[in-house]
Amino acid sequence: MILKRNLLAGAVLLALGACGTQTPTTGASAAATEAKVSGVDMTALDTQVRPQDDFYQFANGGWLDNTEIPKIYSGYTIYHQVYEDAEKSLLEIIKHAAASQAKPGTEAQKVGDTYAGWMDTANIEAKGLTPLEDELQAIAALKGQDGLVELFAQMIRDQQEAPLGMYVSPDLKDSSQYAVYFYQSGLTLPNRDYYLDKDNQNFANIREQLPAFIQKMLSFTDAGMTLERANAVYRLEHKIAEHQWSQVENRDDEKTYNPYKRSELPQLGKHLQWQPLMAALGLDEVNRVIIGQPSYFSALDTLIAETPLTVWQDYLSFHLVLGYAGDLPAAIDSTAFEFMGQKLQGQSEQTPRWKRGVGKVNGALGEAVGKLYVEQRFPAKAKEKMTELVNNVLAVFDDSIDKLDWMSEATRKAAKLKRSQFTTKIGYPDVWRDYSALTIVPGDHLGNMQRVHAFDYQRQLDKLGNPIDKNEWFMTPQTVNAYYDPTKNEIVFPAARLQQPFFQLDADDAINYGAIGGVIGHEISHGFDDSGSKYDGRGNLHDWWTKADRAAFEARTQRLVEQYNQFSPIEGMTVNGELTLGENIGDLSGVTMAYRAYIRSLKGKKAPVINGFTGPQRFFIGYAMSRKGKYKRETTVSRLASDPHSPLQYRVNGVYRNLTEFQQAFDVKPGDGMYLAPEDRVQLW
Predict the structure, then answer these.
(1) Which CATH number describes the domain made up of 16-58+379-429+477-627+641-680?
(2) Where would you tag: which of 204, 289, 418, 457 has the fewest CB atoms within 10 A of its CB?
(3) What is the distance between the alpha carbons of residues 520 and 484, in angstroms, rounded to a whole number?
(4) What are the record's GO terms for cellular component (predicted)?
(5) Peptide bond into 501 cis (omega under 30)
(6) Contact of 155 with 138, CB cutoff 8 Å
(7) How far apart are CA 337 and CA 331, in angstroms?
(8) DSSP letter for each residue of 502-569
(9) Could you tell me where the DSSP H helices lie in 307-352?
């Protein structure tokens, strides 16, 4: 993924003829079958499906048919499997800390008491809404617009939903210093389409139920709450949605980079009082900010003036209680889950409390438990092997730049310079986060969460005026993911992403180049996708392309957009090729680079046939298996509307249709489901 801060065995030998694979030509190759472990989960295959027709189903159909989505999830993927394995280690680490009677102020004490406080449901029930009493009283005491922006600021500082958001990050056009960013926010539903799309019945069904949910949640703070008042909150959110920018518009970093001097902010309107807002956010010394969506902020200014204060009070109370619902008594928690989990995402049952507790500790003290996770689960040899794989894929990417026939020498030179400035981080940070300023109080769960939010917010403020922290990670080691950060021009691979079956130390190279090499290539490619390619090697939003080369690149990517626009995972909805373009480029180019790196690793030798598959075939199976998963319909609807990643089946089939190497490896012919005519195939890097 590209980092956006506004912002996880049996062996059944397959008959070669049944899958249309290439037949081994020598006995020596066949004999090598016994010499190495393929890493392919043969039970996951669906041998009744030809790989030439639907490769995703062929590679994963056995697993898909035999795997039910657990009731506690709205989807279940290989990522869930790997995280559940990590979760067991984390639970033991956390429980050991909770039982250790650690010295006050130590990380062990903070980890243990964070978890113990969450698990103490009797204490949480006894306190009720009392921990939020000060915040609710402040909202109730609102007398005029002067105090409204201060309440907005408090919600932001407390990481709760407000009509605007703020974060601190490197300046996109001067990555040597930090800047303050303001962006649109304030909705209960995933994005504006849920409020505005009149043709999508899935969205209509959800928004029709939203007012009743708002009423239920507000009834916990006001027994006299009426549906009429709840409808007023819904109408306010609808108006907010009307003025928000689309997901596609927000992908354009040039359009969302709008610097304003402090003195210029009143140009956006007089009712959103910027001076009191900045003061309440602790930004008194900040004289320049970046506004993500200027037209939205101008519209918000009007909404502040036109919306009765009583509606704003209900809106803020609703979002405060909803934001903390999981930390409050069971009646509030279950009411929130019924709508946000069951109706919106299709999740049948609430996640067990211990699992949620591990998540709470991860969110609060992720690097503190990450240290111990790394000691247990990430040996030095894994980092060495991963470093080798990364370097091999990077070398292939360099060669690819040299051979591009659509790129001029001027742009090629700049591309090679950017690539040479890449930084790679593998496994865990060199410098761990310091939690000494965070206080965790035994028996005060919600208070602890508020102190965590305050600690995290202060960490942001402390960045202002200081050098960029090159050691900072935006994922913990136990996160099953990876990312590219354009402002640092770095690729980052947490330790949990480098576990089986993504990364198998004892397996033949083909599976690793497919499963984890594809991820390496994906993150590298983000530096050169439609968004990342607008940043230079120093992490600045700076156009280093010639106009002709940019036009040639965009012509190719538009063909990819059109391909993905045709994919429809559920009736009535299609993939948004523009929204998913960056990730689709990452998938296509990433697999391309990983495959070439695998072939290079063979050094001219022929790969052994293992379990009836050639090396190239195992590579493609490895990548496909790394994308296996299934989702509830409700979650698929939500992801199609807001997720920049395509549905899993298209992250495989959509890529492979464009790869001549895949077509050759499985002898795909015209008329096969996976066939795409050579002239229609897209190649970028």
Answers:
(1) 3.40.390.10
(2) 204
(3) 10
(4) plasma membrane
(5) yes
(6) no
(7) 10
(8) TS-TTB-HHHHHHHTHHHHHHHHHHTTSTTGGGB-TTS-B---S-HHHHHHHHHHHHHHHHHHHT--S
(9) 309-323, 330-337, 344-345
DSSP letters, 392-424, are: HHHHHHHHHHHH-SSS-HHHHHHHHHHHHT-EE
List C-alpha distances in Å: 130 to 296, 328, 335, 353, 445: 35, 10, 18, 22, 12
**For residue 258, what are the β-bridge partners?**
291
Could you tell me if residue 489 is left (phi over 0), alpha (psi between -120 and 50 degrees) or otherwise beta?
A: left
CA distance 357 to 116: 9
Quick one: pLDDT at residue 6? 57
Q: Which two tokens stand for residue 131?
A: 């921990």
List C-alpha distances in Å: 372 to 90, 96, 107, 378.
Answer: 8, 11, 11, 10
Virtual CA dihedral for 289, 295, 296, 297, nearest 10 degrees? 50
Q: Report DSSP state, residue 2.
A: B
What b/e string do you get for 565-588 counting C-beta neighbours within 10 Å, with b at 16 or more? eebebeeeeebbbbbbbbbbbbbb
The fold of the 129-327 domain, in CATH, is: Neutral endopeptidase; domain 2 (1.10.1380)
- Written as six digits, the tokens of 261 are 């001097």
Q: Which amino acid is at 669?
A: K
Whether 53 contacts 672, CB under 8 Å = yes
Q: Which of 178, 363, 426 is nearest to 283 (CA)?
A: 178
**Residue in 665, 580, 660, 585 with CA at minimum distance from that of residue 622:** 665
Token pair, residue 225, equals 């709450």
Tell how strand 490-494 and strand 423-427 pair up.
Answer: parallel
Angle at 269 between CA 265 and CA 275, to 5 degrees: 45
Query: What is the residue extent of each domain of the chain?
Result: 16-58+379-429+477-627+641-680, 82-128+339-377+444-468, 129-327
What is the β-pairing status of strands 174-184 and 164-171?
antiparallel
Q: Are strands 174-184 and 288-291 parallel, antiparallel or unpaired?
A: parallel
Angle at 565 between CA 560 and CA 568, to 5 degrees: 130
- Block means of pLDDT (10 residues each) for the chain, length 685 residues? 57 31 34 63 97 99 98 97 96 94 96 98 98 98 91 98 98 98 98 96 97 99 97 99 98 98 96 96 98 99 97 99 99 98 97 98 98 95 94 96 96 98 98 98 98 99 98 97 98 96 91 97 97 98 97 97 98 96 98 98 95 97 98 96 97 98 98 98 95
Q: Two tokens at 636?
A: 């698929």
**Rounded Cα gap, residues 405 and 485, in angstroms:** 28
